[in-house]
Write a structure and sequence with these properties.
Elements (H helix, E strand, L loop, with lengths): L4 H6 L6 E3 L7 H12 L7 E3 L7 H13 L5 E3 L7 H11 L5 H6 L5 E3 L8 H25 L2
Helix pairs in contact: 2-3, 3-4
């Protein structure tokens, strides 16, 4: 229920893991979750939002939060309706490769795990692609720094 979510989240500042999967969370709830994640007082490391009703619009909302929240290590979004558009936005928030400054400003701490519309087995493939991209960027940085 969207009305009780702010109250529930208000008491979760010390949690390390929060599982909200399969709760029919939709765009109406994302603002509350975003406000919670944006709070400087939380220590949440893992947020599970698997199998909810989240879409690309919600993914874009999370990108704003991911740019400033460096405590969150894992964000699970498997089984939602997030397409490649939303995934690209979120990946850029975690690892923006447009320039060396944007790389430095990216949130390198968060690993996002999702799959396409609940397709089993795809989550790990996307996750490996993210880490592969991260290694490529690290190589680019080293090359730029050492002029190779």
């Amino acid at each position: 229920n969207v009305d009780v979510l702010p109250e529930i989240l208000g008491g979760c500042n010390r949690l390390k893991i929060l599982r909200l999967n399969e709760n029919k969370i939709s765009s109406r709830n994302v603002a509350h979750i975003g406000a919670f994640l944006a709070s400087p007082n939380i220590s949440l490391a893992t947020l599970r939002l698997d199998k909810n009703l989240l879409s690309d619009i919600d993914a874009v909302h999370f990108t704003v939060v991911l740019k400033s929240n460096t405590n969150l290590k894992y964000l699970y979004l498997t089984g939602n309706s997030i397409t490649d558009v939303g995934k690209d936005e979120m990946t850029t928030a975690v690892l923006d490769t447009m320039s060396l400054n944007s790389i430095a400003d990216s949130n390198h701490n968060c690993e996002i795990v999702y799959s396409t519309l609940g397709t089993p087995g795809l989550a790990s493939h996307i996750n490996e692609k993210y880490w592969s991209t991260k290694r490529k960027v690290q190589s680019k940085i080293l090359l730029a720094l050492y002029g190779m």
